[in-house]
Amino acid sequence: MTLNRRLAAKAARLLPEHKPPGSPGLILEAALKLFAERGYAAASVREIAAASGLKPATIYGHYPSKEHILAELCRVGHEEQNRSVRAAVLNSGADPRDQIVAYVRAHVGMHTSFPMLAVVANAELHVLSAELGAATFSLREQSERLLGEIIQRGLDRGVFHVPNAWLAVAAIGGMGLRVAYWYSPEYRLEPHEVADVYAEYALRILAVKTDPSAGL
Amino acid sequence: MTLNRRLAAKAARLLPEHKPPGSPGLILEAALKLFAERGYAAASVREIAAASGLKPATIYGHYPSKEHILAELCRVGHEEQNRSVRAAVLNSGADPRDQIVAYVRAHVGMHTSFPMLAVVANAELHVLSAELGAATFSLREQSERLLGEIIQRGLDRGVFHVPNAWLAVAAIGGMGLRVAYWYSPEYRLEPHEVADVYAEYALRILAVKTDPSAGL
DNA sequence: GTCTATATGAAGATAGAC
DNA sequence: GTCTATCTTCATATAGAC
Questions:
Q1: For A105-164, how does the pLDDT look when each residue is reduced to its tens digit (9 = 90+)?
Q2: Is residue B120 part of a domain?
Q3: CA proximity to B7, closest of B135, B186, B206
Q4: Distance CA B17, CA B26 (A)
Q5: Which among B5, B41, B177 is the nearest to A39, CB-wise?
Q6: What pLDDT score was predicted for residue B208?
Q7: B187 touches chain A (CB under 8 A)
Q8: CATH of the domain at B73
């Protein structure tokens, strides 16, 4: 028996447009839960089949391999994450401060709304081959580049003050990513409340003007 | 072939006092590298044996099971992390701002100095049984409680200004934890430089006084 | 302490009937 | 589309010689 859960969330959630009808959708959802809770390598095709109400062989009528199921989950996870931060930033106006708030709210919101998808898409991505991971890697790079560009624009305009844009990307992205591990719908704060606080943290990280003689 | 690495670090590092002499130490170090790069479930005892220059059966002369090897790695990782943040805070004086700087520097420093150990101790902890994980869970809780107490003291003294102490613990802890995934000795910043920047970020998150009427 | 050899089970995946 | 049955490989772990 294991004492500790890998993540707090208990239910697997997929956006309707990412869940195909019939057995493929059931398989995807069952795999999402198992991959999130136990990890890709520790979850077997037999377990995915049992959780889908199917026999193992039936899985292979819908997905060519277990790795293809993971690839699809990683892809839809990063797709939703990329779509949501891009839409948020496009709707936020030209001020880098507004853009950061929009980006972080969307980023954190995705991790509270789809914690299992976020955990699988991030923590299990490394097992994918170059071919099966290509779509996901591209989406991930786009999202990260967008955050970097917002921060760089804020630095160029003099509204942000950090010594190193990339470290700010890493810190802001990293704190958001971890939300998926501890957030669950039973948590006393609503998703938007967590997102608002993290957006404020990101602004604080970026927008505090420090004394240049202090060495930072 | 996999395109993406799970973490940037390429070498397994253990503190001398955590690496027993002879074969047990070789086994521990080989397992650390394999568990960090591929994950616990995807790394086999055969591979650990090969990387240690031993045969699989020899492993069981030193560790009762593969899970016991992981338990030992999780324990020493959390032990070093707990030891280092406690020592840092004890040496930092009574001001919560100094304590936060000391804590985050030590926390990030541990994740840059021992990235594989940090990744394994955090990402693979969930597979341990209650018995084998007990020592680690206790250390992890101590470290987290220490950070929470520093923040609460700063709030009580009016030097920190956040709406929710636990969210600050999660954000500051989370951004530090992620460092282990991207940092490697080839990175252009030295460990202490990364640690200093992250300590400044933590101070900014906590110590920015906002307008109370703004709702945060 | 280390080895060879092996027990035992479970893994991913396929063949072919219905 | 789904099933039963099975192939093949690899997993953790053990027995017992040196």
A1: 999 999 999 999 999 999 999 999 999 999 999 999 999 999 999 999 999 999 999 999
A2: yes
A3: B186
A4: 13
A5: B41
A6: 85
A7: no
A8: 1.10.357.10
CB-CB neighbors (< 8 A) of A196 in chain B: 216
Token pair 């021992």 is at which residue?
A: B114
In a domain, A3, yes or no: no
- Say if the Cβ atoms of B178 and A177 lie within 8 Å: yes
Give the burial string for B54-90 (b: 16+ CB within 10 Å, else e): beeeebeebbeebbebbbbbbbbbbbbbbebbeebbe
pLDDT at B211: 56
Calculate the dihedral angle through the C-alpha atoms of B106, B111, B112, B114, rounding to the nearest 10 degrees.
Answer: 110
- Of how many residues is chain B composed? 216
Residue pair A162/A132 in contact (Cβ under 8 Å)? The answer is no
A139-153 burial by CB neighbour count: b if 16+ within 10 A, else e?
bbeebeebbeebbbb
Distance of A46 CA from C11 C1′ (whole Å)? 9
Residue of B nearest to A130 (CA): B3
Question: Is the Cβ pair A179, B174 closer than 8 Å?
Answer: yes
Q: pLDDT tens for residues A156-187?
A: 999 999 999 999 999 999 999 999 999 999 99
Q: Answer yes or no: is B59 within a domain.
A: no
Q: Is strand C in 7 Å reach of the CB of A66?
A: yes
pLDDT score at A1: 45
* Containing structural domain, residue B84: 66-209
Average pLDDT of B119-143?
A: 98
B102-110 average pLDDT score: 98
**Nearest beta carbon to residue B129 from set A1, A126, A172:** A1
* Residues 6 or more apart whose Cβ sits within 8 Å of residue B174: A174, A175, A177, A178, A179
Amino acid letter at B195? A
Tell me how many domains chain A contains: 1
C-alpha pair distances (Å), A107 with each of A84, A157, A194, A199 = 7, 24, 11, 9
**Sole residue written with tokens 């959708």:** A25
- Residues B119 and B6 sit within 8 Å (Cβ to Cβ): yes
Domain annotation covers residue A55: no
